[in-house]
Amino acid sequence: MRRERIRVRGVVQGVGFRPGVWRLARACGLRGRVWNDAGGVLIEVWGGAGQIERFAGQLRAKAPPLASVESVERQALPMSDPPGDFSIVASRGGEVHTGVVADAATCRACLEEVREPGNRRYRYPFTNCTHCGPRLSIIRSIPYDRAGTSMAEFTQCPACQGEYDDPADRRFHAQPNACAVCGPRLWLEDAHGEALENAGEADAVARAAALIRRGAILAVKGIGGVHLACDAANDDAVGRLRRRKRRYHKAFALMGRDLAMLGRYVRVSPLERQALLSPAAPIVVMERIAGHGLSAALAPGQNTLGFMLPYTPLHHLLMDALEGPIVLTSGNRSDEPQCIGNGESRHRLEGVADYWLLHDREIVNRLDDSVVREMAGRVRVVRRGRGYAPTPLVLPAGFAAAPPLLALGAELKNTFCLMQEGRAILSQHMGDLEEAATHREYRRSLDLYQGLFRHRPAALAVDMHPDYLSTQWGREWAAREGLELHRVQHHHAHITACMAEQGLDLDSGPVLGIALDGLGYGADGGIWGGEFMRVDYLGFERLASFEPVAMIGGARAIHEPWRNTYAHLAPWWGEVEARYPELDLVRFLRARPLATLDAMLERGLNSPRASSAGRLFDAVAAALGLSREAVSHEGQAAIELEALVERGAFVRERAGYGCRVVERQGLPRLEWRAMWEALLEDLAGGRPGGVIAARFHAGVAGGVASMAMQLAGAHGLEKVVLSGGVFQNRLLLERVVELLLEAGLEVLVPERSPANDGGVSLGQAVVAAATEIRA
């Protein structure tokens, strides 16, 4: 007989870990006990050496689905009399960090119960257990128990209470546990707020499905918010939803019943299949199959569709009653936060939805659906929300010494990040802080997270841009509380976020960071966005960039892509006009107020120069007639340009359009006139747009990779980090990665945090942490 103490750290509380340990210990013939404490889960076991070895070896492999084991530490103890059996005992040892787990898709066992006639949870839309169901979306306070969630008002019936109390049951201490007798209820109502007759809970889903089949638009309250749903094959319904929601071009998210249904409309790779079936159940952006039979208005100008599978019993029941996919988009008008409350949805979605499928379990925390895309051999997070937040990222060696920090993120696609005890807790997607309602939700969520994680920051980190609302809020907060304020350059944060999530230690050597995005405030006060930098956690050196080009009209250049096209052509417009007088692009630009624009350029009026990769993609998209006059959402023109690429031509085009390296203000710059000259020749010669787009993508990838190779060699750098929203272009990312790997360089790309501005807060946090540690 031996006696051991085993410490398990990670996401191991509130996920059914102790019952799993109890079952495993009994299967191994061990005696002892298990409990939660401030450090995670602690186990004491008595048994033979072989039994204990087998038990300890299976703690990771047989962990519950929602658990994440960071470490298993073993310590031999002096022998003593063993207890009579193995038991779960009360928590002990000071304040228990129960943690907050991400919401999880319905598990197989619960789904079988929902679909089994005669089961007491047959067709019950709120069925869940320790392995699935709502978590962050319902929590108000810690410790994580029923009283601190929106399930507090639903007292468990004797049957549910018995499951909750039984360590052998998978619902042992499942806080949202419920059934039709004691739990939340569902109903269907019309636009006047009147419940439909004969549409009780048993029939509400079936009636909702029938309404969708007839072309109605439904507001459906889910787990993290209210969605708007309609038949994805009904052109009229999709068109009405676009007009009512005021979302004229941005792609709609879709839900399909199962993989077989999805396979009729998109190509699903093994990695995409794995993501779709994961507990996170994100929206997965996949290649569309031509002639798919769905509405052409789902994703105009794109060759991809974003699908998710049902992730609650309610969604499973709804999709079981339908023959095809549905649109399932956020319940809001464009640019507003998603609705979460019943009254709020009735008010804000009046005139948008025709019917409401609602329930009485309160959504405490708004959670947008997460979005992922397979790129460069990995599934990469594009938007972090339901299913991923607030799962912590374990930081690399060296960061555990940092004091508690809070990073407030960027202006667009905002997230914030708490850091403590060597972990980064990255929030769900907040949205664009310029929208007043989003900014209110941002502040509310900051307060909530600090309470949930018992977090009091010793310092704050913000973007260097003085006008970002998150920066202004951080300045006020730091001044009020007397906290240190770290101002972190935007692209430095992009690169360090990737370094941290990819496991580069605090003391690791510098990397070559390539940040391509729309814009970020530069260290020189200019607008950056196509940057090559020597980066470590403590600082950076700008080594090269894209050639800065004027943004004529300032922010108007973001919304009107043709302005970027003219800014690139303006220095030699006379030649362009003389050589291509009948070109459609030239005729279009001639009709613009060019004399006024030239005067603005000459005087530097509202025309800041930006080294922006995003604006270059907009300029070329507009030249090809894509969203030329205006865009209705961020990245629209660039997304359409990627979709236009003729894939065969891209495979053949290894060099593409060329670019030059010029020296400006002491920095090498990628300059694009040669590209424009070749592109205009192809346009004038009637070359297909798909081939031109392919040559452009190949040329940019080649230029970026060539510059990277030169800089890596000159500065002795072996690792290259790629980040920024422009690298969410799959063709660009994969070609650049391919070229750099062929050159023998190690390439790191964000995976668990977004490459776009949704990952900036993580980078801000690790830069501030490094500065605090080395201070």
Automatic annotation (TrEMBL):
Keywords: Hydrolase, Ligase, Metal-binding, Transferase, Zinc, Zinc-finger. It catalyses: C-terminal L-cysteinyl-[HypE protein] + carbamoyl phosphate + ATP + H2O = C-terminal S-carboxamide-L-cysteinyl-[HypE protein] + AMP + phosphate + diphosphate + H(+); an acyl phosphate + H2O = a carboxylate + phosphate + H(+). Pfam families: Acylphosphatase (PF00708), HypF_C (PF17788), HypF_C_2 (PF22521), Sua5_yciO_yrdC (PF01300), zf-HYPF (PF07503). Residues 3-90 form the Acylphosphatase-like domain. Residues 202-387 form the YrdC-like domain. GO terms for biological process: protein maturation. The keyword Cytoplasm does not apply. Pathway: Protein modification; [NiFe] hydrogenase maturation. One of its GO terms (molecular function) is carboxyl- or carbamoyltransferase activity. The keyword Ligase applies. PROSITE patterns: ACYLPHOSPHATASE_1, ACYLPHOSPHATASE_3, YRDC. The active site is at R18, N36. Its EC number is 6.2.-.-. Involved in the maturation of [NiFe] hydrogenases. Along with HypE, it catalyzes the synthesis of the CN ligands of the active site iron of [NiFe]-hydrogenases. HypF functions as a carbamoyl transferase using carbamoylphosphate as a substrate and transferring the carboxamido moiety in an ATP-dependent reaction to the thiolate of the C-terminal cysteine of HypE yielding a protein-S-carboxamide. Belongs to the carbamoyltransferase HypF family. NCBIfam families: hypF. This is Carbamoyltransferase HypF. It comes from Candidatus Sedimenticola endophacoides.
